[in-house]
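Example S7 (structure tokens).
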């Protein structure tokens, strides 16, 4: 691993209380089964992130680790994945997955993305199906502050299709309602992120009901 301070047992627990969604708490054990149909989409989002073996990636809103494993394959044993997850129940499932798979270079940081104490400078960040985090400028600033200049960023998830595609949007609402606190910004979920990255590329999927956004962190301003 090319960064220090990464221990698979590392945990930071948030002090503040937040609105809890049952999909991320009492249903955490069945999250993989409930969202299994989307694993191919998760893989597509991960593939859009151009990371190399030996690099360190932040998996923001990592849930039970369904993307963390895909990222671990990309960075290899000399790289590392820092999984940031707010839900204690989801984080617990992720730790079980890490232990069973023997991923010694995957760390779980249990905290809201706004407050997470990230002990590395990372080469890339992934935001996969984390609409609420993407709507939080504070969360994005905290993550971006831990990326090296030029680090790659990829985000993907659901969005509203064109207004006349009523059936598509009804289906999107049903699919995503258990996993978002608010649909605010669902027409353009990357609206805050695109202000923080350069060379933004946007690709829409599923008749406009999904997206993948990529870009990279800008160079740091001279002090």
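Recovered sequence:
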């Amino acid at each position: 691993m090319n960064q220090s301070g990464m221990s698979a047992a590392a945990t930071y627990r948030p002090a503040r209380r937040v609105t809890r969604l049952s999909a991320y708490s009492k249903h955490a054990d069945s999250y993989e089964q409930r969202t299994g149909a989307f694993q191919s989409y998760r893989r597509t989002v991960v593939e859009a992130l151009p990371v190399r073996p030996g690099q360190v990636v932040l998996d923001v809103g990592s849930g039970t680790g369904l993307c963390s494993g895909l990222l671990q394959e990309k960075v290899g044993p000399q790289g590392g994945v820092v999984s940031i997850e707010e839900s204690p129940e989801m984080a617990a499932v992720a730790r079980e997955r890490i232990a069973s798979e023997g991923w010694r270079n995957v760390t779980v940081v249990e905290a809201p993305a706004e407050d997470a104490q990230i002990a590395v400078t990372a080469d890339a960040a992934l935001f996969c199906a984390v609409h609420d985090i993407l709507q939080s400028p504070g969360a994005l600033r905290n993550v971006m502050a831990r990326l090296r200049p030029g680090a790659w960023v990829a985000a993907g998830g659901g969005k509203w299709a064109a207004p006349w595609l009523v059936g598509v949007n009804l289906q999107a609402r049903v699919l995503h309602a258990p996993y978002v606190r608010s649909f605010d910004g669902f027409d353009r979920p990357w609206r805050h992120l695109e202000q923080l990255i350069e060379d933004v590329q946007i690709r829409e999927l599923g008749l406009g009901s999904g997206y993948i956004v990529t870009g990279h962190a800008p160079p740091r301003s001279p002090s």
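Notes on this example. The chain has seven helices and seven strands.
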